[in-house]
Design goal:
single chain; about 130 residues; 2 domains; 5 helices; about 70% helix; flat
């Protein structure tokens, strides 16, 4: 991959990283510091209707799942930035072929070409 293309992808990755990091920091500030009582706004959780606690717990669970996914992407971005530095960015980790630029434009932190990614996903389904 040419230096110009690498710089382009590096800028994209750094921008994505900054946005995800801000989202992650915001999530931590808002969710990890609160307990159910704080979210319900009551002194005692015993005075709160069980359905309210269930709704809050469900919302927290969804937020944690989304945040976990965001953290996984953040980690993938960091690995992609390392690959840019060591000259392996844009090469499939499984078969070694160049990952299509179209794929990298959509998923700039992609570690596998489309064919290998499909193999991985198909094996996970079995």
């Amino acid at each position: 991959m040419r230096t110009r293309e690498l710089e382009r992808f590096k800028k994209i990755l750094l921008k994505m990283r900054k946005e995800l990091k801000e989202d992650w920091d915001s999530f931590e500030k808002e969710n990890l510091s609160q307990n159910i009582r704080d979210q319900v706004g009551q002194v005692s959780s015993f005075t709160t209707h069980p359905a309210d606690i269930g709704s809050i717990t469900d919302e927290q669970e969804r937020a944690f799942l989304l945040a976990g996914h965001g953290k996984d992407i953040l980690d993938s971005i960091d690995r992609a930035l390392v690959r840019i530095e060591n000259g392996t960015y844009g090469k499939c980790k499984m078969c070694g072929v160049n990952i299509e630029n179209e794929r990298l434009l959509v998923i700039p932190y992609a570690e596998f070409c489309r064919a290998c990614q499909e193999k991985i996903e198909n094996e996970e389904m079995v």
